[in-house]
């Protein structure tokens, strides 16, 4: 099993995920704690009340998720995305950051829902690629998160006005930022190249389909679909992996003349709730042309 998997199935929100607070105008937070308690059980620090006591609308049986402001965490804890996920809460506490305790239903993963208007394979690939470029332009300015910007990019992609970049972009970024780290679990490790799309599933045997991976992740992923595997283990997916995967699928569907075929629900649901790794969000800011 890959290291650092910290996720309770009922939460649907892993440690380190960037989330949106649906009750506070899309403020952004980072998940730092997953206490094994519900809203009626979890005591709010420095009070004699539970989380449920603060709002009658909270379901008493909903699991509690602890979060901190993403902006504050970025400013106060250097390179937190390279550190152990299990240490996030203590690092935030040491930095004097306020830790909020919310019901999990109040939070949702940023950029992770697949809208109903995304119907075909072309639509789905373009939407996910638009997510990547939208993250690049808003990650350091959450107040500028605007749905219309994402849809503008999506419309430009689906109409052919703009196209996805060459896979050389992912390769350049991979060489500059990912050397010495597993692309899947983000841990410093000895790595070998893993095929994103398994060879047994028709994956090509060249750099467009390869990323550095540690022995543990390589073995765990094996011949599984990369999106399913990330969803199963609950940790965010690397920007390089998403970029390469989308370009591989585009080429596959284009070759088989399936780009404008309706996307099955099983494929749509594969992407629901998938979070792009925060570490990659930061790197994208340095490479706005990606």
From TrEMBL:
<keyword id="KW-0540">Nuclease</keyword>
<dbReference type="InterPro" id="IPR003615">
    <property type="entry name" value="HNH_nuc"/>
</dbReference>
<dbReference type="GO" id="GO:0003676">
    <property type="term" value="F:nucleic acid binding"/>
</dbReference>
<keyword id="KW-0378">Hydrolase</keyword>
<dbReference type="Pfam" id="PF01844">
    <property type="entry name" value="HNH"/>
</dbReference>
<dbReference type="GO" id="GO:0008270">
    <property type="term" value="F:zinc ion binding"/>
</dbReference>
<feature type="domain" description="HNH nuclease">
    <location>
        <begin position="171"/>
        <end position="219"/>
    </location>
</feature>
<dbReference type="InterPro" id="IPR052892">
    <property type="entry name" value="NA-targeting_endonuclease"/>
</dbReference>
<keyword id="KW-0255">Endonuclease</keyword>
<dbReference type="GO" id="GO:0004519">
    <property type="term" value="F:endonuclease activity"/>
</dbReference>
<protein>
    <submittedName>
        <fullName>HNH endonuclease</fullName>
    </submittedName>
</protein>
<dbReference type="InterPro" id="IPR002711">
    <property type="entry name" value="HNH"/>
</dbReference>
